[in-house]
Amino acid sequence: MTPDFPQNSASPPNAALSPPTVRVRLRINGNEQTAELDTRTTLLDALREHLHLTGTKKGCDHGQCGACTVLVNGRRINSCLTLAVMHEGDEIVTIEGVGVPGALHPLQAAFIEHDGFQCGYCTAGQICSAMGMLTEAKAGWPSHATADVAAQRIALTEAEIRERNLHVLATLDSLEERRGDIDEESPLVQELARIDNKLNVLMDIVTRLLVPESVLPARHRIRLNATGALVSSELVPSSTGPLLLRLHIDACRALPLELPARHQPGADQGSAFLVFEPLGEAVSDGLERFVFRHHRRKVAEARQSLT
């Protein structure tokens, strides 16, 4: 049966209702901007379609690719997963507010210097995400092993050191795995090698920004295995108490290995042997793998230089 609607009805029965809108004031890159928005509008669409800040890109629109990353109150977020009306009064930074030609942010300058982008579509999201990550690292965010995540300072317990070292060793293991020798000459393998080189450049950019060369300790040559390290005696304090050996490795300088150790007498003059305190099987296995991979790569480089 067809319903009988009055002829003088103000609107057809199937007419779409106008979506509710609200006037939203957003503080973006230090400037206050106002827009009349559908309450369902994401922050990403507000930036791009209403405020014409198109540096923030729409990729997957599902919060997976990171191309839409912006900073809100210093924290990195995916702008496609949050509503614009939620951010009145927040300090929002998009790529347009990071730097300008002639006064680039150090991250932007580093991306240009090292060619750290490919097509460039998601570079804005990468830079904003990297800025947020640097802030998190500087603030000393806790790890999975931190007992009191609300503590002002994180105690350097054995569990904390073990957690950090496992992450460092896993990162180093992954880097060494990717940097293995490539014997094939197929176009696919060469393309993978090219992408790998890009990843290496990005890793170098991030590590140099996290830990600038100026704040690193002086370089020293050491001999390292899974049980201890042979170092210059000048580096070892005269006290006989427990020591903490912090190793900044070139492949991943931003994540130092922190190994509790004790001085064992008997090394050659001018040298000191530091024996690592036991930190669990997982850390020991990871350290053994790292030492083995490093030794194997050095042997391969030496053989290659002879040919």
Outline the secondary-structure elements.
Layout lengths: L20 E8 L2 E8 L4 H8 L18 E4 L2 E4 L12 E3 L12 H8 L9 H16 L19 H21 L8 H24 L12 E2 L3 E5 L10 E5 L9 E8 L6 E6 L4 H26 L1
Parallel strand pairs: 1-5
Antiparallel strand pairs: 1-2, 3-4, 3-5, 6-7, 7-10, 8-9, 9-10
Provide an overview of this structure.
This protein has 307 residues and is an alpha+beta fold. The protein has helices at residues 43-50, 106-113, 123-138, 158-178, 187-210, 281-306, and strands at residues 21-28, 31-38, 69-72, 75-78, 91-93, 223-224, 228-232, 243-247, 257-264, 271-276. The chain has 2 domains: 21-127, Roll (Ubiquitin-like (UB roll)); 157-176 and 183-307, no CATH class. The strands form 2 sheets. The protein has a 5-stranded mixed beta sheet, with helices on both faces. The protein has a 5-stranded antiparallel beta sheet with strand order 6-7-10-9-8, covered by helices on one side. Helix 4 packs parallel to helix 6 (281-306). The chain starts with 20 loop residues before the first strand and ends with a helix.
List the defining traits of the structure above.
disordered N terminus, 2 domains, 10 strands, Ubiquitin-like (UB roll), 5-stranded antiparallel beta sheet, alpha+beta, 5-stranded mixed beta sheet, 307 residues
Short structural description:
It is elongated, with a radius of gyration of 27 Å. It contains six helices and ten strands, in the order ββαβββααααβββββα. By secondary structure, it is an alpha+beta fold.
| H/I helix tally | 6
Residue-averaged pLDDT: 79
State the end-to-end CA separation: 91 Å
What pattern of helices and strands is seen along the backbone?
A: EEHEEEHHHHEEEEEH
Largest sheet: 5 strands, mixed
Q: Supply the number of structural domains.
A: 2
Count the E strands: 10
Tell me the helix content: 25-40%
The helix-and-strand class reads alpha+beta
Strand arrangement across the biggest beta sheet: 2-1-5-3-4
Weakly predicted, low-confidence segments: 1-11
Shape: elongated
> Compute the gyration radius: what is it?
27 Å
Work out the strand percent.
15-25%
